[in-house]
Amino acid sequence: FPSGGSGTITISAAKEESFLVIDYSDDGCGIRKEILQRVFEPFFTTARSRGGSGLGLHIVYTIVTQMMEGSIKVQSEEGLGTRFTLRFPSRAE
Fold first, then answer.
1. What radius of gyration do the chain's Cα atoms show?
2. Contacts of 33 (CB under 8 A, 6+ apart)
3. What is the distance between the alpha carbons of residues 66 and 50, in angstroms, rounded to a whole number?
4. Is residue 86 within 8 Å of 71, Cβ to Cβ?
5. Sign of CA dihedral 81, 8, 64, 55
6. What DSSP assignment string belongs to the chain?
7. Using an 8 Å Cβ cutoff, are 52 and 45 in contact?
8. pTM, entire model
9. For position 15, what pLDDT does the model report?
10. pLDDT range class, residue 12, cuts 50, 70, 90
11. Dihedral angle at the C-alpha atoms of 80, 40, 24, 1, nearest 10 degrees?
């Protein structure tokens, strides 16, 4: 969200077949199209001047895909917010 701004974050979870699906969405600033494909790259940040390291989403990606054997995808449009969908194999019956 813009500095000092407010907005809405929605998080939901559901079981789909043999997967747990967690959906995060917000109505914030969104991510510019030209950087959307890079958000999971290590050290990629648009906030370096504000102390950003570019490791946050890379760490999330690594945990989700390697440690939890799942997947994560991002959808966003500048000015319309962002959505992350995480899918994990369900281990519970």
1. 14
2. 77, 78
3. 29
4. yes
5. positive
6. --TT----EEEEEEEETTEEEEEEEE-SS---HHHHTTTTSTT--S-GGGT--S-HHHHHHHIIIIIS--EEEEEE-TTS-EEEEEEEE----
7. yes
8. 0.84
9. 94
10. very high
11. -50
d(CA 19, CA 13): 10
Mean pLDDT, rounded, for 9-31: 94
pLDDT digits (tens, 9 = 90+) for 53-71: 666 788 999 999 999 999 9
CB 62 within 8 Å of CB 53 = no
pLDDT, residue 81, reads 94
